[in-house]
TrEMBL record:
The lineage of its organism: Bacteria, Bacillati, Actinomycetota, Actinomycetes, Micrococcales. It comes from Flavimobilis soli. PANTHER family: HYPOXANTHINE PHOSPHORIBOSYLTRANSFERASE, HYPOXANTHINE-GUANINE PHOSPHORIBOSYLTRANSFERASE. Its cofactor is Mg(2+). This is Hypoxanthine phosphoribosyltransferase. GO terms for molecular function: guanine phosphoribosyltransferase activity; hypoxanthine phosphoribosyltransferase activity; magnesium ion binding; nucleotide binding.
Amino acid sequence: MDLSDIGNDLESVLLSEQQLNDRLAEMAAQIDEDYKGQDLLLVGVLKGAVMVMADLARRLHHPAEMDWMAVSSYGSGTKSSGVVRILKDLDADLTGRNVLIVEDIVDSGLTLSWLLSNLRSRGPKSVEIAAMLRKPEAVKVDLDVRYVGFDIPNQFVVGYGLDYAEKYRNLPFVGTLAPHVYES
Ligand code: 5GP
Ligand code: MG
Ligand code: MG
C-alpha cells in the first residue's frame, strides 16, 4: 500500500510498515526479557492502541493476558485537558498484577498520567507504559514511559490506530495529513 492508494489526503509517510515491524520486534524482545517468568497483563487503550496491541502481543513469547480500557479526555479541540472519563473499564482485577499499559501515542502525557494513577490505586504489583509514538511535549512532563517505539516531531499523525475524525486508523503505516484535509 502506498500513499496514492488512499487518494491525496496524506502528505507523507513518517514511519513505514517495515520500520514499525522492526521496532515492534525489538520492543517485544525487551518486554519478554523484562517479564520473564513473571505475570504480565497488557492493558490496551481503545481505540488507538488496537494495532500496537495486536502486533506487539503476537510478537511476545510471554503468555501475557490482554485487557482493554476505553477512556475519553475532556478538552477543547485537539488538546487534551487531563480530565478523563472511563467509557469502558477493565475486566481484570489488578491486585498483585504486573500491568503494562499499551498506548498509541504520548503527546501532552495528561491522559497517561491520569491512567497511571488510576491503575496504581487498584493495588497492582507494578504498572509500566509502552507507547508506539512519543511527541516532544511528552518529554516535558514527569511521565516515565518504559518502552517507546519512536520519538516523532510535533506533527499531527494518522494511521496505525491513530485517527483524524475516526478515519485513517486502518493504515498500516504512520503518515502526516495534507493541509487541505484540515482546512476543508
Ligand atoms: P495526551 O493526553 O498525551 O496529550 O493525548 C493522548 C491522545 O491524544 C492519544 O492517545 C491520541 O488519541 C491523541 N493524539 C495525540 N497526538 C496525536 C496525533 O498526532 N495524531 C492523532 N491522530 N491523535 C493524537
Ligand atoms: Mg491513545
Ligand atoms: Mg483520536
